[in-house]
Amino acid sequence: MKYAANENGYEVVDFEEIADVMVVNSCTLTNRADRKTRQALYQAKHLSPDGILVLAGCLPQVNPETSREIKGVDIVLGSRDKFDLFPAIKDYQKNKEQQVRISPVDNTERLSSAFIAATDRTRAYLKIQEGCNNFCTYCIVPYARGNAVSRDFDNTVEEARKLAEKGYKEIVLTGIDIGAYEDQDRRLIDVVKTLEKIKGLERIRISSIEMNTLSDELVEHIGKSKKVMPHFHLSLQSGSDTILKAMHRKYLTADFSKKIETIRKYIPLASIGTDVIVGFPGENDALFCETVDYIKKIDFSYLHVFRYSQRKGTPAATMKGQVPEMGKKARASILDDSDRNFRSTYAQQFIGTRQAVLWERFEEGFLYGLTPHYIEVMIESSKNKHNTISEVELTKDNIVSS
Ligand code: SF4
User: Which atom, in ligand 1's list, is nearest to the CA of 237?
Assistant: First the structure.
């Protein structure tokens, strides 16, 4: 598959194809993420030995020395410097010397650069916020991405308008702590209300948001909105108050439950997904059981389960009571089962209802798309209805994610 050439004259190709420039945008949230970055770098170089290899993002930001020493890497760009990709390529082509650009992450000017990830013409991810001031004890993000900064409001609206003009039907608003969005007196709800007025933009989705920054006003608005999808991703991380306190999360389970009640009051069938970390230091069997019990009470739509990963430089890395990998694995597997149950139970509620589906893929006579509640649907079709929205009655056979 090939995508349109961008303004800099480059054409994006699939990872498996030979490329002139290979960019690995890294995450360093877990040890596993670091391993995947190294694997991707190796594979990219193997596929395109003559191409320019770029390592960008969090790994270089947190570990500059290690990053520049990785074999074959020609350009190293920090979290905010990745927007300098094209000038860095030019400099490399001119000098044939490794280019390293890692500036401090508290540089607020960079966020107005468009950061848009989109692989087809249906859904685009528009980053409106970067960085985080929360310093949860397990998390490397505040060190890798710096303090919280928000994209300029007018620039946000302008970028969204351009995306709609290019044909994108759905925009997912993203950020590290998106609920903390603030540009002068404009908040997330103002962004949402303004984007709803953009012609051609049919759907707005809010990505992962911290429970304590999701305002009741925004929830109520989403309940009435035709364009903002009834889908929330609220990171719980643990269902044990003891662990939540040790994590320095800014809520306890009672606060979380209250927010869920508010969501269900305005949007009874809202999709509510969450992240959970298992094996945080000090999490014994009893505390893990508290999480399992709490999760059952909430009835999520899906869970993303993570095994705690020791990140050097974070307070939790040196806490007592580190949990062995085997124990983390066993706990993750229990929650993975809960995830499967949640997905299936949640999707089944929609069987027999008609839902608007935005068709995202057409492959071998089948259309794939998502409902407003984030349920994946697949139907047989003789027509390619890619990037259109049509209503479908959900059945146990056409739901993919149950
Ligand atoms: S709020 Fe999220 S990004 Fe910020 S420190 Fe906590 S886990 Fe990390």
Answer: 7
Q: For ligand 1, which residues put their CB under 6 angstroms from it?
A: 132, 134-136, 139, 141-142, 176-177, 210
pLDDT digits (tens, 9 = 90+) for 269-317: 999 999 999 999 999 999 999 999 999 999 999 999 999 999 999 999 9
Cα–Cα distance for residue pair 320/401, rounded to 1 Å: 39
Task: Kindly state whether residue 381 falls inside one of the protein's structural domains.
Answer: yes
Say whether pLDDT at 5 is over 50: no
**Which of 81, 30, 77, 23 minimizes the C-alpha distance to 53?**
23
Distance of CA 363 from the midpoint of ligand 1 (Å): 38
Q: Which of 28, 134, 210 to mutate to test the pocket of ligand 1 (most atoms within 8 A of CB)?
A: 134
Best of 61, 62, 132 for a ligand 1 pocket test (most atoms within 8 Å of beta carbon): 132
Task: List pLDDT tens digits, range 40-49.
Answer: 999 999 999 9
Number of domains in the chain: 3
Q: Distances in Å between the alpha carbon of 145 and those of 152, 184, 237, 246, 335? A: 18, 22, 20, 22, 29
Query: Which residue has its alpha carbon closest to ligand 1 atom 1?
Result: 134
Give 137 Cα–ligand 1 centroid separation in angstroms: 9
* Contact predicate 70/55, CB 8 Å: yes
pTM: 0.86
**pLDDT tens per residue across span 74-101:** 999 998 788 889 999 999 999 899 999 9
Residue 400 maps to a domain? no
In a domain, 237, yes or no: yes
Residue 219 three-state SS: helix
Same domain, 189 and 323: yes
Q: In what order do the strands lie in the sheet with 75-77?
A: 21-26, 52-57, 75-77, 99-101
- List, in sequence order, every residue forming a beta bridge with 274; answer none if it has no partner: 303
pLDDT digits (tens, 9 = 90+) for 133-180: 999 999 999 998 888 889 999 999 999 999 999 899 999 999 999 999
In a domain, 401, yes or no: no
55: nearest Cα among 12, 92, 100, 97: 100
Q: Is the pLDDT of residue 1 over 50?
A: no
Q: Directed axis angle between helix 188-195 and helix 153-165, to 10°?
A: 30
Domain match, 154 and 59 both: no
Dihedral sign, Cα of residue 248, residue 218, residue 128, residue 387: positive
